[in-house]
Design brief:
The model has no long low-confidence stretch (mean pLDDT 89). The radius of gyration is 28 Å and the shape is rod-shaped. The longest helix has 67 residues, at 2-68. It has a domain at 51-112. It has helices at residues 2-68, 72-99, 106-111. By secondary structure, the protein is mainly alpha-helical. It has three helices and no strands.
């Protein structure tokens, strides 16, 4: 009877140890994915949104310039707005090119 209880307790301990090792391994995988999301994916999305905002700002400035370009004050305002949009586009492109070095899909790097 004692031998059977010891064996049962040993089996339970082995199962607990295996489950603990599995949990530790899975937590490491989750930590790696979290690190990749926070340090690569999120900045990439942010830079992409900044890129899109720059395009919209530049197009809005161009549209305003085309409509109100005869007014010198408005023309300068819209030129400055368009230039600000292009500055935003350039900044986000530099950031995207830097982040693309760590991208995992080569097709995305080619599309950039």
């Amino acid at each position: 009877m004692k031998f059977t209880i010891k064996n049962s307790f040993g089996v339970v301990l082995i199962i607990v140890a295996l489950v603990s090792i599995n949990n530790f391994s899975e937590l490491n995988n989750i930590a790696k994915a979290e690190h990749r999301l926070i340090n690569l994916r999120l900045p990439t999305v942010t830079a992409g949104m900044q890129f899109t905002d720059g395009i919209h700002l530049s197009l809005a400035g161009l549209r305003g310039y085309m409509i109100l370009g005869k007014n010198p004050t408005a023309a300068e305002k819209f030129k400055a707005e368009r230039q600000h949009g292009w500055d935003q586009i350039d900044t986000s492109m530099i950031k995207l090119e830097e982040l693309s070095k760590n991208w995992t899909d080569p097709k995305n790097v080619e599309m950039l």
